[in-house]
What we know:
The structure is a homodimer. Chain A is of the alpha/beta class. Chain A is built from 11 helices and 12 strands. A 7-stranded mixed sheet of chain A has the order 3-2-1-4-12-11-5, with helices on both faces. Chain A has a 5-stranded mixed sheet with strand order 6-7-10-8-9, with helices on both faces. In chain A, helix 7 links the parallel strand 8 and strand 9. Chains A and B meet through helix 8 and helix 9 of A and helix 8 and helix 9 of B.
Amino acid sequence: MSETIRVVVDAMGGDNAPAELVKGAVQAVQGHDTIHVILTGDQDAINTELAKYSYPKDRVEIVHCSEVIQTAEPPVNAIRTKKDSSLVVGLQMVKKGEADAIVSAGNSGAILVGGQAIVGRIKGIERPALAPVIPTENGCSLLIDCGANVDAKSHHLVQFAQMGSAYMEHVLGVKNPRVGIVNIGAEEEKGNALVKETFPLLKECSGINFIGSVEARDIPAGVCDVIVCEAFAGNVILKLYEGVGGTLIHMVKGSLMKNLKTKIGAALIQSSLKETLKAFDGSQYGGAPLLGLKGLVVKTHGSSKAREVTTSIYQCETFKKQRINEIIRDYLAAD
Amino acid sequence: MSETIRVVVDAMGGDNAPAELVKGAVQAVQGHDTIHVILTGDQDAINTELAKYSYPKDRVEIVHCSEVIQTAEPPVNAIRTKKDSSLVVGLQMVKKGEADAIVSAGNSGAILVGGQAIVGRIKGIERPALAPVIPTENGCSLLIDCGANVDAKSHHLVQFAQMGSAYMEHVLGVKNPRVGIVNIGAEEEKGNALVKETFPLLKECSGINFIGSVEARDIPAGVCDVIVCEAFAGNVILKLYEGVGGTLIHMVKGSLMKNLKTKIGAALIQSSLKETLKAFDGSQYGGAPLLGLKGLVVKTHGSSKAREVTTSIYQCETFKKQRINEIIRDYLAAD
């Protein structure tokens, strides 16, 4: 029999809570026999949603919580004071080993702070890193770090490269993933102080396939599999990606609705265009893991629908099966 | 009679040199009576191109140069050793006051290094800043700095905000331009050390319309007119903008060519889509000025066609007429 995986789903976090979170959790247990889901949050609200579905009841559990951390709350304070929130209770379960992982679409800052403060870091990892998957022309790349800890040092970036490699290879199945560092030019002598300091360390680092500097221009074409950068740059890349994509798609759609002629044209290209744009949507790869913690914490988009929640739960399953944290520990031991 | 403006065009720089450079220069003198162009580069090659057009000969001058700085050459060395290159000779003319401005589509690093080393900075400006205009959904924004000087300090960023404001207001005609600083969240307490240090300085800075932090996600929608950031982030933003835009447009075009049905649809939407994508093309605003120098240095895309060259020359004209450098000096005096 396969190993069971226990995943907490923060049922109260995100724009579509609890409905889409519960639906996503139900779909995950329906899809994979080995998944056991624990929904944290308001029992009544969760039960109302659960009543809509038929599912294996022995693999869906509710842990009632009386509090919710809102999206706009200051993270540190929220984690400290709302001990009975769906997020904090869920993180505590991961810490205690009562669950393997937690998926939350809630307050990003609180997830990052809580993940570090409650679940705790793998020994030797100085900074956990948030590593979303971004779409590229022919697949996807892992962008690490987009977390809350800005102003990282060079040795942190080396750990990001190692953790990102382990994740891309063993969770997303990319053989010998190409690791690049975000830089302002392709030449080794270019860059800011941090990049110049990190570059030789990555070159020397065994166990990763370092290909050198990558320019932001080449990221969407899929120039490498693991994109290493400091969190400020990572955040800019992640958000600009969404921003430029969103604006361009909005403009293209506007140009299709301009007049009768373009509307007829739009009808003819609709399905092909839709398929193309779907390929350029990172949410199909699940949420962003916070790598380097003793358990797995996955942050999904605040606007996540059931599908992304289900995918994120499957992602937790692969993460556990592939023993990613053991691989990360091996990297640290080899250093 | 209007004031004459003398603009050097580096006829040998860029992918389309000298043909498009010469053509752009000719179009500029044909368009505006007050423009005098000096083409630096190989006399024979330039004359061959000039022979294709009829134009006011008294306003087009050639200064022969025996050398060319190639795109891939290390900038500092190129500027130091190639004294008779079309770029260095042109920069020297600006320095000596024989020309008001220079437009080059050549080696970016050499333009930045040469601009600082040869033309020289305005007294009080510690770092000149490269400030390209990027397209937004409803217009454009100035992104400052995208230059070669990474790891800037907070007071440099304040000067970038002042120079960028002067440029947006007086060259691009944006009244009371909104200045934002690139950050990883909208709240004042967020950011890396540099942003946290710069934020209060921008708040206190008189003469600019500081609106606070802007997230990269909101840049394409046109959240502010002057986007202030350190050069590493600026470079990432500029290049990712091009990269995501290029990849998405390529994917959309691919989806249009998929089968007969989509091809018919494509024919119906073609002109509307083309117009939309044209609006999202920054090159219509000319090249990127290197602000803070005693004369004006404008860097255009390496792939510039005649139209961008002409626009860049007109941009130099407005820059001089509006006495941008005097406005920048006034800002410095007020500090």
